Amino acid sequence: MKFSATRETVLKPLQAVIGVVERRQTMPILSNVLLVVKDGALSVTATDLEVELVADAAVDEGDAGEITVPGRKLHDIFRALPDGSKVDVSLSGDRMTVKAGRSRFTLSTLRAADFPTIEDVAAQQTLELDAGVLRQLIDKTHFSMAQQDVRYYLNGLLLETDGQQLRAVATDGHRLALAEVALDKPAARSEQLIVPRKGVLELNRLLTGDGTVELVLGSNHVRARVDGLRLTSKLIDGRFPDYGRVIPAEPPNVLMADRDLLRQALQRAAILSNEKYRGVRLQLQENSVTIQANNPEQEEAEETVELEYAGDEMEIGFNVNYLLDALGAIDGEQVRIGVTDGNSSCLITEADASSVKFVVMPMRL
Questions:
Q1: Under a CB-based contact definition with an 8 Å cutoff, are residues 67 and 93 in contact?
Q2: For residues 88 and 85, what is the distance between their CA atoms, to the nearest angstrom?
């Protein structure tokens, strides 16, 4: 195997896939990336057995071939070379040589035949949508995914299509985020699949441009193609909770607030909240809310925010981080918060749109 290219040509696909390469691996070959040179193109593949990323680049081919090399070392070498360097890469026996100007690096290799790749996704249907739209769906929901929950099906993001819409839902059992978008081309069938946390975060990292992303939904995998990159992720085999039962239908008490004013007041009060439980108390009164926080050192914070509210007077506690995450994911200037009583979940939406919903459970303080 032999090829030549500029530093930037090879660095771009390496940067795209390197996030999947774990620093500590039980299998040595998973620390490597698979390089395949064929028909004037270089293909770079990385996998952790759950998520696979493939990126392509055009190179000057000397000899076609394939091999695996240590991923992070190769990435660091190309990143450290001077801008615009012409790089020659060649394979001799079980050693790969990288030459650029007066620099020369020799890397160990492992056989390409031993590298685990996902060739076939048993496609059940394919969706096409704008990359920016998919990125927005993920941005507005992914923070509500659980982390290492024993209920493994919560450690991921639900993607659901009912034919006309694509919906993303995430919950950790204490809060829930839902976002949906209408599909330009109706889906062939209704479907639900749970994408694991790492697959979601890697996909979001790749959705930087404004092109079209092709989502291939399979029985055990989901595959996304965008801008010469291909991400394949295993799916979580489990049943996602019936989230519809968690979303309050029409909370009787509704407050309308300036999103930034409320967010800033919560951030200030959070400074003196309990570092472990992050609880704040909201006292709702006519056209105002008083936010209170305290901690084991007997320190206290109190903020009063003017807003539109004509409902019942009540006191309700929340994890301030959950409220801040929801407010941070809302685009509009005004936020609508519906509450039933001091022991029920609140529903947070944009003032004039219902395509994004956040549910936060109360805390006992």
A1: no
A2: 10
Q: How far apart are CA 78 and CA 80, in angstroms?
A: 5
Model confidence over 206-241: pLDDT tens digits? 998 788 999 999 989 999 999 889 999 999 999 999
Return the structure tokens found at 76. 């660091």
Sign of CA dihedral 3, 7, 9, 10: positive
Q: Which residue has the tokens 């530093």?
A: 7
Tokens of 80: 């450290």
* pLDDT tens by residue, 162-217: 888 999 999 999 999 999 999 988 888 899 999 999 999 999 999 987 889 999 99
Q: Locate tokens 């994911």: which residue?
A: 329
Domains and CATH numbers, the chain: 2-114 (3.10.150.10), 123-244 (3.10.150.10), 247-360 (3.10.150.10)
Phi, psi of 230 (to 5 degrees): -135, 120
Neighbours of 100 (CB within 10 A): 19
The angle subtended at Cα 141 by Cα 199 and Cα 229, nearest 5°, is 35
**What tokens were used for 249?**
């239908």
Cβ–Cβ under 8 Å, residues 157 and 194 = yes
Strands 334-339 vs 253-258: parallel, antiparallel or unpaired: antiparallel
The residues, any chain, with a CB within 8 Å of residue 170's CB and separated by 6 or more, are 141, 142, 143, 144, 145, 156, 157, 158, 176, 177
